[in-house]
Amino acid sequence: MEEQRYEEWVAVRTDRERHLAELVLDRPQAMNAVSTRMARGIARACEALAADGDVRAVVLSSTHERAFCVGADLKERNSFTDADLSRQRPHARAAYGGVLALPMPTIAAVHGFALGGGFELALSCDLIVADPTAVVALPEVSVGVIPGGGGTQLLPRRVGAARAAELIFTARRVAAEEARELGLVDQLVAEGEDRAEALALAARIAAHSPVGLRAAKRALRTGWGMDLAAGMEVEDAAWRTVAFSGDRAEGVAAFNEKRAPRWPGE
């Protein structure tokens, strides 16, 4: 990525190149374990990205060679009182909720360990690209809690209720090949190529209408859990958003003129 924006938040940075943004987990000394400060950084980065109308796709990646993110910082939590844990909770929810709420398509680039909250960050993305070193799990019950970053809701939507229950109740770790077979990740690529492939996929996505991409994501996400009739109404509302937009007019014109579209993003 050519342009880098290092913000005041710690352990997270956003890199920008044209219409792509990369949200980088950058706390290698702790294998990207999510501390309170890191959670605040993720939330603030997502808030900034969500407000940036020029961004069409986001890749969530890691600087650590052996881990995407190992989940909550249990060393930090070891000294927590109940009051401390309660105070941290809004920051954790804002971090995971921030990734989930990003209005543009999101792709997680996963290698190494993606455990607990780390896997929940990936699950909060629309697509997950992984390499053969990836190991994913929601092991929270093994330390006396439950997934609290969306895992109990997002995992069943990927793999079904029974499979999600088995994975959460047993806390077992799933290696990359099985993860692909179960649908825990969407693409399995060559070792060390997860980030490059995720960025390439994001670039292909970002070539399309920004209005269309956001409307399609809104329809997909809003329709979760609805019956078909309600979902069709959601789709119709999203269609109306784009049907009378500048992007629709430009897309039709570009098709007929046999040229690449110049999306106004309106």
TrEMBL record:
<dbReference type="InterPro" id="IPR029045">
    <property type="entry name" value="ClpP/crotonase-like_dom_sf"/>
</dbReference>
<protein>
    <submittedName>
        <fullName>Enoyl-CoA hydratase-related protein</fullName>
    </submittedName>
</protein>
<dbReference type="InterPro" id="IPR001753">
    <property type="entry name" value="Enoyl-CoA_hydra/iso"/>
</dbReference>
<keyword id="KW-0456">Lyase</keyword>
<comment type="similarity">
    <text>Belongs to the enoyl-CoA hydratase/isomerase family.</text>
</comment>
<dbReference type="Pfam" id="PF00378">
    <property type="entry name" value="ECH_1"/>
</dbReference>
<keyword id="KW-0443">Lipid metabolism</keyword>
<dbReference type="InterPro" id="IPR014748">
    <property type="entry name" value="Enoyl-CoA_hydra_C"/>
</dbReference>
<dbReference type="InterPro" id="IPR018376">
    <property type="entry name" value="Enoyl-CoA_hyd/isom_CS"/>
</dbReference>
